[in-house]
Amino acid sequence: MAEAADIQGIGPSPARRWLRRTAALIIGAPLVAALLAVPAAQAGTGKAHTGSGTVDVSLNTLSPSAPVKGDTLTVSGTVTNRGRDTIKAATVDLRVGPKLLGRTEIDTAARRTGYALGSDPAALGGKYTVKIAKLPTGISQDFTLSVPVGKLGLGDDGVYQLGVSLSGQTSRAPYPQVLGIERTFLPWQEEERDSRTKVTYLWPLIASAHVTAETGTDDQQTPVFADDDLAAELATGGRLEQLVSLGSQLPVTWVVDPDLLASVDAMTGNYRVKSGDTTVAGTNQAVAKKWLTALEAAVSDGKVVALPFADPDLASIAHRGKNVSGTLSHLQTATEVAGSTVQTILHVKPSTDFAWPVDGAIDPSIVDVATSAGAHKVIARSDSLQETGNLPYTPTAARPIGGGTTAVVADARLSTAFQGDMSKAGNSTLAVQKFLAQTLALTAQDTDAERSIVVAPQRTPTVAQAQSMARALHGLDDGRWTQPLGLVEAAGAKPDADATTGVPGTSQYPRKLRGQELPTQAFQDIKSTQVSLNNFQVILTQTERVVTPFGNALNRSMSTSWRGRPLEAQQYRDSVRTYLQDLINEVQLISKSDVTLSGRSATIPVTVQNRLLQGVDHLVLRLKSENATRLKLNDGGAVAEQPIRIGAGHSQSVKFDAAANVNGQVQMTAQLYTEDGTPYGDEMTFTVKVSELTPTVLLVIAGGLLLLVLAGIRMYTHRKRANAGGATGDDGGEPGQPSDPTPDTGPESGEPSAPGEKVER
After folding, report:
1. Residues 85-131 pLDDT 10s
2. Is residue 470 part of a domain?
3. Distance (Å, rounded) from C-alpha 385 to C-alpha 387?
4. Could you tell me if 260 and 372 lie in one domain?
5. Does residue 71 sit within a domain?
6. Full residue range of the structural domain in which residue 414 is found
7. For position 746, what pLDDT does the model report?
8. Is 339 in the same domain as 481?
9. Lowest CB count within 10 Å: 71, 295, 533, 552, which one?
10. Domain harbouring 671, CATH code
């Protein structure tokens, strides 16, 4: 009766509804608890690794990178269980294919993650596998797979995808499945191609600034370094040592910052290193000599490009500095000294006709600044000067961009191939294989013309990045699809008529790079220091001792190496300016106390001190009386001047004639000037107190003197008469005077003189 009533739409009794709800709660409780437990477990352990992301597969080595027929391909790496369950009955397999058509497909394949059933090829299987009975959670296991190239099933020449996967099962998924996969690329070219791509690889030798503007007091002007960090880069295993060691075995074009060479050359002799408020002797002469010797041998083929001295930041100058007067002059000077610096130290003549903006990013203002310093070739990059004609191939690097300027457009994919952390073997192997794959795919593009491609990597590659770059270039050693070419030759290659030549607008300059630029204030600081240097050098007898080190320091202040380090850049500029001001202050006026002038005329001395280690000349000392009516100078004017010439470490007292007319105090101002009238140093003030003798006083003194004279005459006459009477025996005359009369002027005062200076009369 109850079931019939439910079917007919009649509701169940209240008791039955209660029983049903209770049963539902009892049955559903475990399910709810399980659902709540999953998020809680995930919250405690982090993201769960499941499916084909359970195992991390790393490919540490792949040899040979570009095999030929008859080779055996060896792949080694590591598998790591990132999941929660132990993996059992695991197998590491090699998967080959498919062949990738073009550079875009390579990019797409490189972004793929996880196993895709139907897209990824079947495992090679057979005896070319590695068995792992058990792989507990969090545990890693190394593997090595060796397969004859003939067993890979490679067909036509081209780039093939190569995958290494781990299949296995867990207690939660007790059936075989792919739990991890890593893909890379295998370039396959059996014979040397009839048409090969010319590849120009830039090998940069650039470092941050280490030398200060300060030099020693000796005749050799011993250089002073801010730190001794450069020695670590030059030592065995250091960044710069590795770049030279690796580059010496590669067909590359060396791109050198002359400042680096000058700094290392300075280290080969005596040098000092700042340590707090003092300096200590540098001790790495042997390291510097060894590095320079190795570099000189490595660049003996002459493929050297010299950047302007200290590698100035062209974009910062173009966007923030060119409107600050003097900035472009610094760039011009940095370009002029580049060639001679490299030739003197390395004994090869470099090309100085190239400019290299940061990351090859250009706009019209950057090109204008680069060419203003004499460069006619600008190293750009294809992600800045992008193709707009939908070309189905990568065009030749050289492009005419107007005004007789050539843009050498580096390939962005190849130039950025080794950025990131290459210290991890897996990252390095993938980068090398992708680089080789891209060069083969580029060569295989549908075009009849041979092309010239330029690779411009990061300016200061790490040791691991440099090693990865070297491995990639060695993969091209046999020249099956590429051949090396120098940068000068690449810039002179015949341009592709269909390639883009339009320079992108200023608004298209990358925002990230713009945010790293030196601020306008940096160039204003440099200008201020240069003005002070100009005023200082005109008084020196040995200008080169100051102009050269400070000129180099100002060039370093504009270096590209300051990008991303604004505080360090400001500190360097401040240190240059402060040290220059310290030198300027070594030539100064010695402070005077007040002067007392007692008399109508006198000389006033002013002392100039030179504590420099060289003589100074072409200075003028100007003394000014603030009250010419009371005190006149020299020929009766309010101002008097005298030329100044002082030897090293000496002082000179300069005397000015003065004439007083009225008693009282007169404020005097002394100031040094250069011969062109520019004030030098701070002015000095002192007071002259005039105590002039008036005409009335002079009359009184004259009257007193006259009375004394008359009295003397009277006494003389009287004595003469007395003596005459005595001679005749006249006893009635007055007796002679027993002695001279007592003087009517008192003794000189023993009291101390009044404070202040007494001047010569």
Report:
1. 999 999 999 999 889 999 999 999 999 999 988 888 999 988 999 99
2. yes
3. 7
4. yes
5. yes
6. 197-497
7. 33
8. yes
9. 71
10. 2.60.40.10
